[in-house]
Amino acid sequence: MVDPRVEKLAKLCVQYSVEVKPKEEVLIGGSDLAMPLIHEIYKQCLLQEAYPMIILQPDIQYTFFKYAKEHQLTFVSPLEKFLIENIDVSIRVYCDPNPKRLTNIDPAKIRMHAAAGRELTEIFNRRTAEGKLRWTLLPYPVSAQAQEAGMSLTEYEDFVYSSCLADKDDPVAEWRRIHEKQEKICKYLNGVSKLRIVGEDTDVSMSVEGRKWINCDGKYNMPDGEFLTAPIEDSVEGTIRFTFPGIVAGREVEDIK
Predict the structure, then answer these.
(1) 184, part of any domain
(2) Most buried pick, 35, 75, 111, 113, via CB within 10 A?
(3) CA–CA dist 257, 248 (Å, integer)
């Protein structure tokens, strides 16, 4: 039996985050471990009378980076390019079965592969900016990520689903309320010209004059609940210290100063 929170999260994704419409082509991607959520998203897309397709991605990144030669690292799939150029909606389910699987891989190989995909990223971003492509990213909890969080799988599932408000009676209504609340804050911040952030080992100031604040209300990322902008590029001054370990491209990074 499907966890009712999985069904609610799928409905939230399809009806709120990307607002799938009839006859739209929807690409759903993610790890095979996330199939319970991917299945529900697929079902919700069908209920919206769209044309969903699924591309599962098993955990083969380590094998690829360990054995791929340069021409394979820089190869750009014509099929992937075609999909990015033609789909209406992209839904990606985040589910990492081993966050540290690339720890011992040469970073140069990862950079080379990422650089080769720049054209695809540019197409994706251009179509998004033109309003021709809508996308979202949402999580599916698994044991490996629960371990990273220092939780049991049950605890981590509760954490993830509650963060997405999938444990509420009507998650869509909840996120619409968040949108309205954050929109008021964005309107206020649009009138702010300078920011200063002060904390332990941190004192950073910057100019945001003329920059637009964006309401992050669960459309592109789920969960969400923030608002963002970009400072004037040469205006940032001060010091900042990060002490919480993070994982970048499958490699752990600690105590960045």
Answers:
(1) no
(2) 113
(3) 16
Does the predicted model carry a pTM greater than 0.90?
no
Is residue 140 within 8 Å of residue 17, measured between CB atoms? Answer: no
Residue 244 maps to a domain: yes
Structural domains of the chain, count: 2
Distance CA 86, CA 226 (A): 30
Confidence of residue 242 (pLDDT cuts 50, 70, 90): confident
CA dist 44 and 67 (Å) reads: 38
> Average pLDDT of the chain?
92
β partners of residue 205: 196, 237
Report residue 187 as tokens: 């309107």
Question: Looking at the domain assignment, is residue 186 inside a domain?
Answer: no
Runs of H (alpha helix) within the chain: 4-12, 35-47, 61-67, 70-73, 78-86, 107-116, 118-129, 143-148, 153-163, 171-189
Q: Which domain holds residue 156?
A: 4-175
Q: How far apart are CA 174 and CA 192, in angstroms?
A: 28
How confident is the model over 19-52, as pLDDT tens digits?
999 999 999 999 999 999 999 999 999 999 999 9
Phi, psi of 198 (to 5 degrees): -125, 130
Residue where a domain terminates, one of 142, 175, 208 = 175
Among 175, 202, 233, identify where a domain stops: 175
Q: Each residue of 138-172: pLDDT tens digit?
A: 999 999 999 999 999 999 999 999 999 999 999 99
Q: Which amino acid is at 205?
A: S
